[in-house]
Specification:
With 115 residues, this protein is mainly alpha-helical. The protein has one helix at residues 2-112. The longest helix has 111 residues, at 2-112. The protein is rod-shaped, with a radius of gyration of 49 Å.
Length: 115
């Protein structure tokens, strides 16, 4: 009977050690899970920050593209205005030449007509 009691006590002690070992392993697993969850939260925050920065960059890129498009339109407008101005200058030169020719002709006609 005493031997059975000793065997039962040893068996209970062994089960207690096994239970403590299982509890320790479970605690370690919970720590690993918590650590992984913290890392996941950190990565989610980092990802959100990167997404925000990408959004800002895309916004700046769009703004730069619009500015470039606007500058291109302004350049095209300036070129068109310059062409128009040059055409008007040419036309003005032609009209000035015609005026001078008519004026000279009028002057010659007036000088040949007796008074």
């Amino acid at each position: 009977a005493e031997d059975q009691l000793i065997v039962a006590k040893r068996s209970a002690d062994e089960r207690g050690r096994q239970l403590n070992q299982i509890k320790d392993e479970k605690s370690q697993e919970e720590e690993v899970i918590n650590s992984l969850q913290n890392k996941l939260s950190y990565l989610n925050i980092e990802s959100a920050e990167k997404d925000r920065k990408i959004g800002q960059f895309q916004e700046e890129l769009s703004r730069a593209q619009r500015n470039t498009d606007l500058r291109e339109l302004q350049k095209e407008d300036a070129e068109a205005i310059l062409k128009e101005r040059n055409a008007l200058r040419h036309e003005l030169n032609d009209l000035t030449e015609q005026y001078v020719a008519v004026s000279n002709l009028l002057h010659e006609t007036q000088s040949t007509v007796p008074k």
